[in-house]
Design a protein that fits this description.
Elements lengths: L4 E5 L5 H10 L3 E4 L3 H10 L2 E5 L7 H14 L4 E4 L7 H13 L4
Parallel strand pairs: 1-2, 1-3, 3-4
Length: 104
């Protein structure tokens, strides 16, 4: 079996730990917060992790683009709600994602 490729949109605080965990479990990580490549990477991956710990300015569009591409390709998506409820912006983004997409 090939090593699963996990696309992780995450925060800098936990990026290395997440990459190490994926490697320990036999997978490979690719990390990017670039909107321009989000759909392409998500469609080519075996799973997607969206961690809202440090949302970029285009967070909602980035997350929706990646989750949409994953959904269109039957790729599982995990949503890590870091800091949910801490700010109105972060909460609104998470609520919109939860209303639009089904997460693993």
């Amino acid at each position: 079996m090939a090593r699963p490729l996990i696309y992780q949109i995450t925060n800098g605080v936990s990026a290395q730990l997440q990459a190490d965990c994926v490697a320990l479990l036999g997978g490979s990580s690719v990390m990017s917060c670039r909107l321009a490549e989000a759909a392409e990477i998500a469609a080519a991956s075996d799973a997607l992790l969206i961690n809202i710990g440090t949302p970029p300015d285009d967070a909602e569009e980035l997350y929706r683009t990646a989750a949409g591409a994953a959904a269109a390709n039957n790729i599982p998506v995990v949503l890590d709600l870091v800091g949910y409820g801490f700010s109105k912006c972060r909460t609104a983004i998470a609520d919109a994602l939860l209303a639009e997409f089904r997460f693993s």
